[in-house]
Prior knowledge:
By secondary structure, the chain is of the alpha/beta class. It contains seven helices and six strands. 33% of the residues are buried.
Amino acid sequence: MSNILICGDSFATDWTKKYNGTGWVNMLTKDYSVTNIGEAGVSEYKIYKQLESINIEKFDKIIVSHTSPYRIPVKEHPVHSKDILHYNCDLIYSDLKENKNNDLVICAIDFYENLFDLDYACFVHDLIIKEMNVKYKNLINITFFSSNKNMYNFEDVYLGNKGLINHMNDKGNKIIYNKIKEIINE
């Protein structure tokens, strides 16, 4: 049985910490020995730190679910730091707009609207992904965001099958599970 490491953002996190349901990451445990260190809402930098935090030598394949380049790392999220699923969450504009409940959030929204440099964010995001691919072998790079290039992109599956677990319904999670199994077995 292959040893699989899953890391990345909320699309790769084990949502059973907070909700009932089965995501694609849980389905893979039927076929492989899976270690999942994904965290909901984390930036690309924190995904890189996930890889640094574990001995990757014991894994045959590493599935990395890459996040949006618009996510900014923070030490503590002003809204989600007490949430069991999003405790290590970073900032993203769309989330902040839904939670205008304190001065830090309002300040962060102002930053995104008036100061955020999208080109810089995309450049740094791409550099981190490039470094991961140089430093770590056996990576399977996936994403659910159209802005990420040169990787397996599942944005269409997500958009057509929105739901609660890993942001998808049962059908979407089954599609991702089957596609990931195909990729692993290539």
